[in-house]
Design a protein that fits this description.
The chain is α/β, with parallel strands linked by helices and 347 residues long. The protein contains eleven helices and twelve strands. It has a single domain, classed as Metal-dependent hydrolases (TIM Barrel). A seven-stranded parallel sheet has the order 1-2-3-4-7-8-9. Strands 10-11-12 form a three-stranded antiparallel sheet, with helices on one face. The radius of gyration is 19 Å and the shape is globular. The chain starts with 5 loop residues before the first strand and ends in a 6-residue tail after the last strand.
Amino acid sequence: AGGFTSIACMANTEPVNDNASVTRYILKKAQEEGIVNVCSVGAVSKGLKGETLAEIGELREAGCVAISDDGRPVMNSGLMRLAMEYAKQFNILVISHCEDTGLSSEGAMNEGFVATKLGLKGIPSASEAIMVARDIFLAELTGARLHIAHVSTKGAVELIRVAKKRGVNVTAEITPHHFTLTDEAVIGYNTNAKMNPPLRTGQDIEALKQGLKDGTIDVIATDHAPQDSVSKDIEFDRAANGIVGLETALPLCLKIVAENVISLSELVKRLSSNPARLLGLDSKGSLKVGDDADIAIFDIDREWAVDSKKLKSKSKNTPFDTWKMKGKVVKTIVGGKVVWSEPTVSA
């Protein structure tokens, strides 16, 4: 319903995708039961524990398109360097969640006025920037391809911009919720506005948009993280991080197109062409002759309201419930086959 024809399955599976057997199982299961293309992202460390390197060569051979410890930062710099050295050898992308847990530990939202007002422990923007800087230097040292996940701060954008000018092989992504919502969305202790990295300030949002505009930011990713109601309907500081993002991504992205942040063609690159290129999906992300017929058809002027109860995801944890949106997917085609069609629109 969100128009996504290919998705990347992160390594935070049960069991963790840290070996070839799990990778092969995920890809086999996805092929048998899935209706979209599923790419497998292997773990950097065994068990996502940040202690022992996973068998990166085996993961690559089994079909992984990237390695990442998902929402867990690899705090051991020596281990991260080793991971990048192996990633360079096997030509596989390293996706990094940049967070210094020494600064963010026990934090529940962005550090600042709103956190103070609500009496919640904050996560400083420096916790992201510090790790972005570290990983940039490690990528420069090893020559590995580094991708910074869900960038949320002005400082991180500035570091990535400078690194690119210096010739470091680094790319970056932002999410629709991070360029749409500020930490004020948390007011009222709204757990559906709790995610990691947390929502930041208006100044950070402007920096993210500028990063999109000048090419510092290569990708827009949903960071789709469903959570059940039990893990959200509790005290804010105990609630799980994450929101569902697949069905609201397109209209939120079209909003910044309307604001002239980027053009529609540039949006297609950020959502489709660039991710496909970075993950080495040669037949994806374009409509050239011979490419896979994976297509999302959308009505750019279609107005609708988000109703969390009607979301196709099994989880309903969205901060955009009741929001008025403009732009809606009406048909999703995977491999030339229509896999979803908006019920009210005739073919």
